[in-house]
Design brief:
- The chain is mainly alpha-helical.
- The chain has a domain at about 1-65.
- Helix content is about 75%, strand content about 0%.
- It has helices at about 1-10, 15-25, 35-40, 50-65, 65-75, 80-90, 95-105, 115-120, 125-135, 140-155, 160-165, 170-185, 190-195, 205-220, 220-230, 235-250, 255-260, 270-280, 285-290, 300-315, 315-325, 330-340, 345.
- The longest helix is centred in the middle third of the chain and has 18 residues, at about 205-220.
- About 35% of the residues are buried.
């Protein structure tokens, strides 16, 4: 009843609270779940109570999924309850859950109920989960579905993970899947993830995955990430370098600048340069500005000068003006424009 649920949720011990809630759930008849959920919701669905709310919905779905879904449709405004119920139901009866998801979606947007179904079947039937995921258009929902499938794909081993990625015909989904798998692997073993991505046959998948691995690796072992990036070539190297240079700049902006100087002045490396520029603009503006000449487009180059010098002027006007006057590789027009940026401030 209401008092029992309130007493359970008032317990500050999360283990004891969970045990008491499980005992209550086990004592409920199928017709009791609705009132239990109603009383629970009266307490307020806070972040701290989401795990217990999930337990109640999951158990109700095991007992009477259609009643649970009917309640959720009529009493909740978000997707959470219905997706949670569908996840529980799909684990036991995937076809029925799938049919409900299809029949209860209207419009041309991605079907959010299929995400719940996918979560429920991914552990036991990743093939079917993948088939359903490919029914979704590019969307937040497809990203959520992909996130739920990836852990189960990686558990099957590197070879099966490669085969899974390369069997996906949709390029955007394929490259996204490769990146997610690489990132998942990299969290536990970045060198293994780095080896895995180089076995992919699709250059765009390698490109996306290289960025994922590089960022995660650099967060945990910058030197190893730098060495790995140096061993790469082509677009994979530029993509990895873009992630690594930001972490490198945070640790040692001067060394990062020297590392950046070893990279070729080619169009695909411009994103690496701009990543460094923005990362160092606040704390090391002179190092940041020194990289701007590597930007090929004059209009873009001038825009970077204006933004970074403008911010520097707000923090240290004298230092910024001194730097501008000392630049020999800058057009006179650009120099005058930058020096005039602080003029209105002095004239007020």
């Amino acid at each position: 009843d209401a008092a029992q649920i309130a007493t359970i949720m008032a317990n500050d011990n999360p283990v004891a609270r969970a045990e008491s809630l499980i005992a209550l759930i086990n004592s409920l008849d199928p017709n009791d779940f609705e009132q239990a959920v109603v009383e629970f919701r009266k307490l307020g669905i806070t972040r701290e109570r989401m795990s217990e709310y999930t337990m109640l919905l999951h158990a109700w779905a095991k007992s009477d999924p259609l009643a649970a879904l009917d309640f959720a449709q009529n009493n909740t405004s978000t997707r959470f309850a219905r997706q949670t119920i569908l996840t529980s139901w799909a684990a036991d009866n995937p076809d029925a859950a799938f049919n409900w998801a299809i029949n209860n979606h209207e419009g041309e947007d991605a079907n959010p109920w299929l995400v719940g179904v996918i979560r429920g079947i991914a552990a036991n039937n990743s093939t079917r989960a993948t088939e359903i995921m490919t029914m979704l258009p590019y969307s937040r929902e497809r990203g959520e579905a992909l996130t739920s499938i990836i852990p189960h794909i990686t558990k099957q081993g590197k070879e099966k993970a490669t085969a899974w990625v390369e069997a996906i015909s949709d390029e955007r989904l394929r490259t996204g899947g490769a990146a997610r798998i690489a990132g998942f692997m990299a969290r536990s073993n970045p060198s293994e993830a780095a080896e895995w991505i180089m076995n992919l046959s699709d250059s765009e998948s390698i490109f996306r995955a290289a960025g994922e691995v590089a960022g995660i690796w650099a967060d945990n072992d910058l030197d190893a990430a730098v060495a790995w990036t140096d061993s790469l070539s082509g677009n994979a190297k530029s993509r990895a370098a873009r992630e690594v240079v930001m972490r490198y700049a945070d640790k040692d902006a001067h060394k990062a600048s020297s590392w950046l100087a070893t990279m070729p002045n080619e169009p695909e490396y411009e994103s690496v340069v701009t990543s460094y520029i923005w990362r160092t603009a606040e704390k090391n503006p002179e190092l940041s500005l020194a990289q701007i000449p590597r930007i090929n487009n004059e209009r873009t180059r001038n825009r970077y000068y204006e933004r970074i010098v403008g911010r520097w002027i707000q923090r240290d006007e004298n230092a910024a003006q001194t730097w501008v006057t000392q630049q020999d590789n800058m057009s006179e027009t650009m120099r005058k424009r930058l020096l005039q940026m602080s003029q209105p401030k002095r004239d007020r």
